[in-house]
């Protein structure tokens, strides 16, 4: 959760600074902001900002769904402990529900859940597309935008670096999980061999 929030803050701060700061190159870009002087990278950075907002939304939504699942588990175990009770009183110490809020009021509607799941499935494709497009633009426009709009170019390179860090972290976690699975399978095969 920290990395998307960091991307959000860095993108907003550097884009705002690029909008307010005048371009440094005299001539064609004179009097224009860095944002307008290097519009293609600026628009890619804004597209990345929209993508990051969606990622943060999905993370918050996922947290909310886990909390609802946890509360449902607590309610179901409370009912099984006292089967003659029709209602389960909500603990006053539980900060997850507001006063007067019922447990099932916080579960999102079915259509919204489908939208969120679809967005969660499409998000990696959008991220990869934006990364590749941003990388190509950065390669071709780095020199000019670096001179005219240093804040916009710096933001683009920072976002590319953050994406590479996220990708490396994801690959590391994936390889660790695959190794754990292999070890578990090896133990299962060994235990099956002992029985024969």
Keywords:
mainly alpha; 5 helices; elongated
Describe the structure.
Helix content is 77%, strand content 0%. With 196 residues, it is mainly α. The longest helix is centred in the C-terminal third of the chain and has 46 residues.
In short:
This protein has 196 residues and is mainly alpha-helical. The protein is 77% helix and 0% strand.
Radius of gyration: 25 Å
- What string gives the helices and strands in order? HHHHH
Low-confidence stretches are: 86-94
**What characteristic shape results from the CA principal axes?**
elongated
Strand content: under 5%
Mean pLDDT: 76
Q: Count the strands? A: 0
Note the total helix count: 5
Q: Largest sheet, described in full?
A: none
What gap, in angstroms, lies between the N and C termini?
48 Å
Structural class: mainly alpha
What percent of the residues sit in helical stretches (DSSP H or I)? over 70%
Which secondary structure elements does this structure contain, and how are they paired or packed?
Blueprint: H1 2-20, H2 34-37, H3 39-81, H4 110-148, H5 150-195
Helix pairs in contact: 1-3, 1-5, 3-4, 3-5, 4-5
